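Researcher: Re-running this chain for the archive, since the previous output was lost when a drive failed. Same request as before.
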Amino acid sequence: MQPPNAPSRWQIGLILTIGVMAISTSAVLVRLTIAAANSSGVGFSLVMAASRLAIASLIVLPTWHGIAATKPNKTAWYCAIAAGLILALHFAAWITSLSYTSIAASTAIVTTNPIWIALLSWLWFNEKPTRQVLFGIGIALLGGLLICLGDVSSGRPASDPLLGNGLALVGAWAASGYILLGREAQRQGFGLGGYVAVAYTTAAIALLPLPLLLGYGYTNYPPAVYGYLILMALLPQVIGHTSFNWSVRWISPTSLALIILLEPIFASILGYLLFTEIPGATMLLGALILLVGVAIAITD
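Model: Regenerated structure tokens:
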């Protein structure tokens, strides 16, 4: 039985719909920022990742005052800070992947985190996956292999699909650790607002110096770049990520993971409309098999 202040099903559905639509804009906003700046690669990807999280941490700054009320313990703080560091790795790897592979491939691979969460739970919490989960993992890995072998038939082909897909996979691994650490931080005393404030701020602090070490700064870009960076922080980060962190209090992680699978579909549609990215047949088949594998694994 849910507590009396629990939101209704339609309210949860509305928040999740908004969250999925918001997070699905992430890949196209990265591509639009790259085009506006006429720059790509690791250095500028780190500029985007650091700026996104720095702006997001400023937006959620008022939530810091609520931390004292919840009184998180030391374990909660360690988990929240570790989650922020892993979140920094997630965005550094995944945003960079979009300079080398297609939107469809990158988002399909990065949303495989339910698979890796199952494996990490096995290693960390001794929660052995069932045969169905292992079967789903096998199918998902087959789909991932097909994506890596597939082409992108568009006006702007992927420059290095193998590297881009590998970076997206690293992003998926990091996202899985971030989700598990975030849950533990909230179980140990953090409220939603306090947790995201600590995680986003930690990630921003970790990323901000890195572009400077590679010779990239944060100034002298066209105005459109800064507009896209603000949208990136507001839509997929503050609205998208935070809505998922909120919803997992009211629905099961399995249900949430299934809903997140809609991201690569919406992102691919936006990629086609804005950049005419048409996935090749092999890559499209691989993405479909990958999503089926994830669905099998998380519906056990």
